[in-house]
Every structure is written in C-alpha cells, then in structure tokens.
Fold this sequence. Notes:
Blueprint: H1 21-27, E1 33-40, E2 46-51, E3 59-62, E4 68-73, E5 79-85, E6 88-94, E7 99-105, H2 109-112, E8 114-118, H3 120-136, H4 140-145, H5 148-169, H6 178-206, H7 237-258, H8 261-266, H9 272-284, H10 289-302, H11 310-316, H12 318-323, H13 327-342, E9 353-355, E10 360-362, E11 371-376, H14 386-398, E12 403-408, H15 415-422, E13 427-430, H16 433-437, E14 446-451, E15 457-459, H17 470-477
Parallel strand pairs: 1-7, 11-12, 12-13
Antiparallel strand pairs: 1-4, 2-3, 2-5, 5-6, 7-8, 9-10, 11-14, 14-15
Helix pairs in contact: 3-5, 6-7, 7-9, 10-13
Amino acid sequence: MRNIIIYILPLLLIFFVSCDTETKNNTMKKNVVYFGGNIINPVCNKVKLIKTDSDTDTLIAKLDKSNFFIFKLDSIKTGTYTFHHGAEFQYVYLEKDDSLMIRLNTLEFDESLVFTGNGASVNNYLIKRYLNNENNNINLIQLFSLDVTKFNHTIDSIKIVESQILSDFNYNESDFSNIALSWVNNMLKFTEYSFRELYPYNNTIINKENSLTRVDSSFFDYRKEIDINDSSLNDNEYFKSYINSRLVNLTLDSLFRVIPEIDFFDNSKKFDSQYGKILTYYISTFDDEQIKNYLYYRYSKNLFVSELSIDDLQDLLIPFFENVSDEKMVKKINHLLSRYIKLAPGSKALDFGVSDGKELKKFSDYFGKPIYLFFWLSPNRYDWNTDLTKNYNDLKKQYPNIQFISIYLDYPETWEDSKKVSGANGVQLSADYRIIKNKYLIPSSNSFVLIDKNGNIVESNTSWPGSKKIKAKLNKLK
Length: 478
C-alpha cells in the first residue's frame, strides 16, 4: 500500500491578493473573476489553473517581465481550483465577483502564500488549515487503522481544531460571503462523512483482517440528515465525493453479505461483475439526473485502471451507456475505451518522443529487450513513497535482462532535483505529459506498463513493484 501522507479534511488553499481598488471599480466587470499575482524566484514562465473536480482543459497564464500573471474568467463554477507553478501546486477557492491576487515566493511555496482582495479571507483560512494539518502530520493510514472508538475520538478532536481555525478567520461573521461560508461548512461536514464511509473497508485492509470491519448503526446517524437528491449541492465537489464514498461503502457491505469474504480478499477481481451490478443498482435509486450521471461516470472511468479484458470491460460499461444522458461524459468514456483497445495485450506499444537529458529520442529506440515502464510525476507534488523506490531498485537487480525505464512527466526544469528525491535506478527519461496522457492510461501519479522484447504491450496497467504478483509477471516476461 502506498506510504503517502494525505492530510485530514483535505484542501489547503492559498493566495495573495493585492488589487488597486480604484482600478478595480473602473475596469472590472460584474461576475467576472480575476485571479493573478506576482511570483518571486519563478522556476518557469507560466502558471496553470485547473478545476479540481473537472476534466476541463487547463487554463494557462504566462508571467510578464515583472513575473506577474493574471487570469480573467468570464464564467466560473464556485469551488476549488488547483493553482500550479513548476512542480508545486496549491488550491484556491473562487466564486463570482472575486478579484484575488497572490504574492508567492517559490523558496517557501506554501508558507509564503498570502491572499488579498475580494475572496481573500476564505483563502487565507484554507491555507492556514493546510499548514496546520501539515504540521500535525495527520495520516489517513494511521487514522483508518484505529479501532472505532479511537477513530471517533480523533475525528471529534479534529473538528474542535477546525472550528477554532474557522472562527479565527471569520470572527466578524461577515468576513466570508454567504456562499463561501456555506461552501466551507459543507467542505468540513462532507469530508468528515466521507471518512466515516471509507472507514470500514480501509480499516479491514490496513489491519489485514479476513472479514469486513463492522460498526454500530449509530456510526452513520448523519445519513438521516442528508438529502442525497439535493440538487443545490450538485456542484459541490465535497458533496459529490461523499456520495461516491457512501455508494462504495453500501456496495461493499452488500457484496460481503452475499459472498464469502475470504474469497473476496484473496481474489477481488473475481467479483468485479457482482460489484458492478450492486453499485449500478444503488446508482439507479438516485432521483437527480446530474448526480446519477456523475456516479455512473466516476465508476466507469475507474474501470480503465483495472486489469479487465476488453470483453469484461465492455460488459461492465453497459449500464453507463444505457443510462447516462450527458454527451460530454459519453464522449470521454468512448475515448478511454478506444485507448484501452489500442493498449490491449499484444498491441504494439504506442511510440512517443523522450529525452535522456542530452538528446531527443523515440521510446521505440529502446525496444529489443523486455521493458518494465514507470511513468512518474514530481515527488514535490506528494510525499514520495520510499518503499516504491526500494522495491523498484531491488527488482532491477533481480532481473538484469529486463529494462527498467522511468519516464518523468513533469516540468523539465524540475527533473534533476526530482530524480534525487525519487532515487529510482535504471534508464531515466522525460516526456511531455500532454502527449502521454492521450496515448496511455495513467491512473495515478505513478503508473507501470509491461512491454515485451518486440515492443508489444503485455499489460498497460500492471502491478506496482511491491505487489505480490509482479515477480510472476516479470518471470514470464523474462
């Protein structure tokens, strides 16, 4: 399991805003959002802005000669956006009429962030929350490993701290807009509820139990307060995440009541179809079409990171195509399906340009020996999994006839520093993430592909270095 720190009640947020009010009053249009700022010690000449729960195109703004940037957004969905510069990123909350500016020093990325302007209070609050959680090093693996009594106590303690931080930044009860305050309260509430929904299964897996952890029915009393068909919450990313977590919990609970649990934990792939049938049944019980579309889409999208055959995948996608009315979602799933088919075992591995730091090459230049391919992003984006590197390097020693190729997909200017953090051995290359994501299926910040000596796909989403299955696969490949 990944040894990654995920901070409780996530979503940090950051920004500095320094606007000339006279200019703002004269030039800024109503409902238009302005987000900009100054970057001190920039590591590249651009910044990116991405909606956190959307697959929309990335917005890019270039720095001018004074290292200043500005986004002007004529239409915007209220909620969180990720702001990226180099390998670092943070979150920002935006709503209509905001005019946020930031001042950021890349030498202390998170600690230096300060917001000014319309919408500054809620964003300064969010960055304070993030830094508090970071300093306390609250780890989800540790949280979910607790017994139910200690879990409840920890959640209650976190809520007390969260309440105090919120009070410190909204002490006038007018520092946040009504929309922002409602959003923050929903963020805190639905993040807690999501953790509660995720607790039984994660507690079982982390503690390596052979049966699903059971909790008293009062553990989920909050469900009585929630209208799962409340259309006013459809655009709230935390509500949607909670609904998805609740759906998964209900599905697993039902699944374990009809099949032997020990069989599931030994071979979960065997029960993909049963899981899909139960989950899609629960989705069908929702009244709101937008939420149903979202849940079908999220479940269907996750199928592409499994090891399903094309026939099994297409069977599991039937409920999606029969029930989803959103044409954009249908188009995206069809696009993923076409890529999945192109990456089927026996297909020629798709080629792309790479750099070894000295010259440009083609990935196909490395065909001729079997390849264990490792796509990765900058360790600065998350806490690097040192076990992953150790297992990866150990496998390389054990299989000298297999090429261990790692391909960096982040900013070229951060590659050298990132290599020092990762510590992965083998052939080190970099490539353009935008090109790779249109050719391969990359389910997470670290993804692995098996390719035979003839350059044909063996598995487009294969096991991690620490998996029990990987040695058998590498032995067969060798």
